[in-house]
Design goal:
The protein is mostly helical and 464 residues long. The chain is built from 19 helices and four strands. 74% of the residues lie in helices and 2% in strands. Strands 1-2 form a two-stranded antiparallel sheet. The radius of gyration is 21 Å and the shape is globular.
Amino acid sequence: MEKKRNAFTGSIGFVLAAAGSAVGLGNIWRFPYLAAKDGGGLFLVVYLVLALTFGYTLLTTEISIGRMTKQGPLTAYGKVKKGWGWLGVVACLIPMIIMPYYSVIGGWVVKYFTAFVSGKGFEAAENGYFGEFIAGDIEPIILTAVFLAVVAFIVFRGVNKGIENSSKIIMPILILLVVGIAIFSLTLKHTDAEGVTRTGLDGMKVYLIPNLDGLTVTGFLRIVLDAMGQLFFSLSVAMGIMVAYGSYVKDDANLGKSINQIEIFDTLVAVFAGAMIIPAVVCFMGEGGMDKGPSLMFVSLPKVFAAMGNIGNLIGALFFAMVLFAALTSAVSVMEAVVASFMDKFHMSRTKACLLETVIALVGGVVVCLGYNKWFFNVKLPNGADAQILDIMDYISNNLLMPIVAISTCVLIGWVVKPKTIADEVQKSGCKFGRKNLYNVMIMFVAPILLTILFLISAGALKI
């Protein structure tokens, strides 16, 4: 199986595929909300520092583990050190939990994209539109299946014809859309019912200028933890994806250079996502208009597009096209992490592994959809949030299992097999490991401590 293993044809294909995985819904609906909530430019500075240290450490570790073992996440950790196979099981379980509800959200994106393309964007902006849609019996399930079918087709076609080729087409278009909409947001001007006029540039000031008003040590620690939590989403680490993608990287590739490019690529898109959304929302809804999660994308932004007048339908269609591309590239990577694991562990063909994961994701997706109608309930999570089925799955995967995988990976590499294992892998092709000393300190001390604090807060065991 190892001899027949596919590989990315070059560094460009790998970087675009990995960046496509990283550039997902987390960048678009979570990053701008956190930036607006956590002092604008202050959050950006903290995020950039963490991306260059903490994020870089986790990204380098997982890609190196993948290339070193030539295995998907389910079997890779056991290859690194005997007795650590359990970590691979947890790492593989995360994308299996994420895939069903990510497909459901992908179906929501398809719904809004078709609404704006067909000229019904003003209807999508009406109060209750989103709630009525997700509470429907049939349509959300159908759109989930449509989104999942496209993702499965790309994964079924394999590493080169599917993942690599689709990334080379989708990612440049996505970047153009993100940059274009961000520039358009800066040109906006709106006078509200009270006669207050705001512009896109006013919103950009909210985004870029650090707000230090009332900042305390506790408040700053919360910003650091928010930025660190966002890095999980932004870089697709601690969910087996980068291990799977790393396993397809050739041994003679310049790993250090590719990792730097992924880091830069993803950070720029996250920053541009904020520049695209915050100026538009602040212009039309004021600083209080930044909602969290789905509410931002499916409730607030359609209202912003409707307030733009006739051009709003076009901008909304372009925006949701961009979101759909971002959701697709991320969902492909999530599915590939599971498919690669099935292929390596059970020696399945790609076709069988892809079919099995598609069925699992579809069944799970139907359960998530029913959680908004026939199986609706409401529970309180340990972090205080109200939750339905989707929120519970998200909490288990992102707030509990991902920190466990990240902490355990730091222990495995930092203290069991030692950081030299990763350094040797990065330098295998003769390239330099530029941040080697920083990496050693981060993987052994800083990252596990920060991750443990994040985990305790997520689990409700620590309050700040």
